[in-house]
Amino acid sequence: MENAYTSENMSVIADVDTTTASDIQTQPISWLWEPYIPIGTITNLIGDGGEGKSFFACALAAAISRGNMLPGMVSPFPASDVIIQNAENPWPMVIKPRLEMLGADCSKIHRINDGDKHLTLADNRIEAAIIKHNAKLVVIDPIQSHLSEKFSMNRAESIRPVFTHLERVAERHHCAILLVGHINKGRGKAQHRGLGSVDIVNSVPSVLYLGKVEGYDKDTRVVAHGKSNFSELGVSQSFRLNKADGFSWLGECEATPDDIMNYNSAKAREDKGKVDEAMDFLTDLLESESASATEAIELADEMGISKRTLERARAEMGVKATREDGHWVWSM
User: Fold this and answer.
1) 260 CB-near residues (< 8 Å, 6+ apart)
2) How far apart are CA 308 and CA 214, in angstroms?
3) DSSP 148-196
4) Quick check: helix, strand or coil at residue 299?
5) pLDDT cut 70: percent of the chain above it
6) Are 233 and 225 contacting, i.e. CB atoms less than 8 angstroms apart?
7) How does DSSP classify residue 22?
8) Which residues have CB under 8 Å from 145's CB, separation 6+?
9) Residue 120 host element (H or E)
């Protein structure tokens, strides 16, 4: 086969930048939390909303800020600075109180002020903040709140360049980046349950799943290791989360990522059943005449239908709410 390059464009070959394997210095893998969160790359934390992902991220940040031992580690990671970028919870009322309750050294935990300009995953301010504080952990929570308008979570061509950029930032500064994401409402194996394209999971070397599991009490959560390119999968770790006691590690367990996702699928089906029941209730109540919202809520409560479920059913049915004589009235 004739060489595509002629004497006229041989300069392309001369200018191409390459590295020979013998010139590359091998390095051991470093861990923020072995074997779950490697240093110098991205880890994805996936779970349903309201299950404690942000609290868990704060617990990690608190431990790293103090140099405290994490489960399964032989020695703690040295006390280091952390950046938390949380778009769903206010710092004064939620994040700061959590960090204080968890015993964090708050002088080592920072956020990027993005009130004037939306912070995206490709924003250079992330790298600038890492350099400024020599941060060893960056939490971006959740992924979908830190996307540009042009970014699509469902398209590989959007995901790969941004994740490659973040990974290089992490590698340059020997830092771990934790991306927090929600699950979709589908069914199937855990690797296909992250919100957006499966390429999000495929693009990162380590993936953790967090949530409740059937057979555990309501305050217990499990972190299960679903993917690792650098080591064998770590054993699942459980922790307790409630208002009275806050956060506490419980120890190793046998739950799997699929156990977490199956629980969420069952919960979604259960919730759907409750909404269907509430929709039947509203149909019977409003079929022939309107009813006051107060009366509807009280009657539903007597039937074991919560106000939240009733509101979801009302929204799905398009039940109208109008103000009459100072009271809200619902009608079909």
Assistant:
1) 47, 190, 209, 210, 211, 212, 213, 222, 224
2) 23
3) -TT--TT-HHHHHHHHHHHHHHHHHTT-EEEEEEEB-S--S-GGG-BSS
4) helix
5) 88
6) yes
7) G
8) 87, 88
9) none
Cβ-contact 213, 50 below 8 angstroms: no
Antiparallel, parallel or unpaired: β 176-182 and 137-141 = parallel
Q: What is the DSSP string of 271-296?
A: HHHHHHHHHHHHHHHHSSS-EEHHHH
Q: Which residue has the tokens 């398209």?
A: 155
For residues 32 and 81, give the distance between their C-alpha atoms in angstroms, rounded to a whole number: 12
- Given a contact cutoff of 8 angstroms between Cβ atoms, the answer to whether 300 and 281 are in contact is yes
- What residues does 222 pair with on adjacent strands? 211, 238
What is the token pair recorded at 202?
């495929």
pTM: 0.76
Among candidate residues 217, 296, 331, 212, the one with its CA nearest the CA of residue 260: 212
- State the Cα–Cα distance between residues 332 and 325, nearest whole angstrom: 19
Length of the chain: 332
Tens of pLDDT along 137-165?
999 999 988 988 777 666 767 788 899 99
Between 182 and 190, residue with greater pLDDT = 182
- Residue 188 clears pLDDT 70, i.e. is over it: no
Indicate the helix (H) or strand (E) that contains 142. none
Residue 61 and residue 55 in contact, taking contact as beta carbons nearer than 8 Å: no
Token output for 23:
């010139």
The residues near 67 (Cβ < 8 Å, ≥ 6 apart) are 76, 77, 78, 79, 80
Phi, psi of 122 (to 5 degrees): -95, 5
**Is residue 140 a contact partner of residue 146, using CB atoms and an 8 Å limit?**
yes
Widest distance between CA atoms in the chain: 89
Q: Which domains does the chain have, with CATH numbers?
A: 29-255 (3.40.50.300), 264-331 (1.10.10.10)
For residues 193 and 265, is the Cβ–Cβ distance under 8 A?
Answer: no
The neighbouring-strand residues paired with 84 are 139
